[in-house]
């Protein structure tokens, strides 16, 4: 199977951490169809504050399957956009989370999914 580009767009529903994606855990033996070994390579994380006033703080977290690790904490001024450039590598069971201080934050994440050939 060829590598696939994916896009995850999310509007903050509240100020709790939102899981943007979780990389599937491989299961090539028991699952039907088998779940291949996958790696997500985050190319860009774009954060936009669509409020008329005020700054939104965004905390970006990499969860390695058991522990949240903050990888960036960024302020986005009202009506502006911030972009973080990767690569950021996520393996099976890892997830990307974003926590915003306001519901005015929209995130757009570009990912390359690499699947191991079987």
Task: Give me some keywords for this one.
single chain; about 120 residues; mainly beta; Jelly Rolls; four-stranded antiparallel beta sheet; 8 strands; about 0% helix; elongated
Any overview of this molecule?
- It is a single chain.
- The chain is 0% helix and 59% strand.
- It has 118 residues and is mostly beta strands.
- It has one domain: Nucleoplasmin core domain (Jelly Rolls), CATH 2.60.120.
- The strands form two sheets. It has a four-stranded antiparallel sheet, with no helix packed on it. It has a four-stranded antiparallel sheet with strand order 2-7-4-5, with no helix packed on it.
Count up the helices.
0
Strand order of the largest sheet: 1-8-3-6
CATH superfamily annotation:
Nucleoplasmin core domain
Oligomer: single chain
Topology (elements, then pairings):
Elements: E1 4-11, E2 18-22, E3 38-49, E4 56-63, E5 68-76, E6 81-91, E7 95-100, E8 105-115
Antiparallel strand pairs: 1-8, 2-7, 3-6, 3-8, 4-5, 4-7
Quick take:
This protein has 118 residues and is mostly beta strands. The protein is 0% helix and 59% strand. It has one domain (4-115): Jelly Rolls (Sandwich), CATH 2.60.120.
């Amino acid at each position: 199977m060829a590598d696939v580009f994916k896009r995850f767009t999310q509007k903050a529903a509240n100020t709790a951490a939102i899981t943007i994606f979780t990389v599937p855990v491989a299961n090539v033996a028991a699952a039907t169809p088998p779940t291949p070994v996958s790696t997500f390579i985050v190319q860009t994380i774009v954060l936009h504050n669509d409020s008329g006033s005020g700054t939104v703080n965004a905390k970006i977290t990499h969860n390695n399957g058991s522990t949240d690790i903050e990888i960036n904490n960024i302020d986005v001024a009202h009506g502006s956009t911030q972009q973080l450039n990767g690569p950021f590598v996520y393996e099976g069971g890892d997830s990307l989370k974003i926590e915003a201080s306001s519901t005015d934050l929209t995130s757009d994440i570009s990912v390359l999914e690499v699947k191991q050939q079987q």
